[in-house]
Design goal:
- It is a single chain.
- This protein is α/β, with parallel strands linked by helices.
- It has a single domain, classed as ABC-type transport auxiliary lipoprotein component (Rossmann fold, 3-Layer(aba) Sandwich), CATH 3.40.50.10610.
- 29% of the residues lie in helices and 40% in strands.
- The protein is built from three helices and seven strands.
- The chain has a five-stranded mixed sheet with strand order 4-1-5-6-7. A two-stranded antiparallel sheet has the order 2-3.
- A hairpin with a 5-residue loop joins β2 and β3.
- α2 runs parallel beside α3.
Amino acid sequence: MPLITPLPYNVVLIIDSELSNYEHTESVEGQANWSIGLGNASNDLVTKVIGGLFNSAIIINNQDDSINLDGIDLIIYPKLNRFEFDAPIRGKDVFAESWLQFIFSAFDKDGAPLNEVVITGYGRSEIFRDREGAVNEASQGALRDAGVNIVSLLPNGLDLL
């Protein structure tokens, strides 16, 4: 959880299976096929950061879940919109890099759209012998970077400050 004073809003956070099960698969020419599971880590990141950013956060798993919206100020629906990575196998570049992009959509308690905020993250790790491990470390760094950006950019992007 972020070490900040929570904003005085009560939110509903929608964490659906698309985010919870997010897996990036890619075939890179001249390399093996890659499968990078980001669902659990993305889910943990978003729930912990949003849980600490606001006064209270109720987590639901589907837009159709039935909950009492009395006292709710905002509904937030994050999606992991994009993920890219680079793990060179030769040349002077000895770093694995990962980039990701979340889109946080906000709605009022009646479901009317308010705004969308794009949150990005970048991570990098030196490749020694284990390229998969370096990609994993770079991806974790990208998630940490996104967490910092959620805390610093989301409130302004949603006009909450």
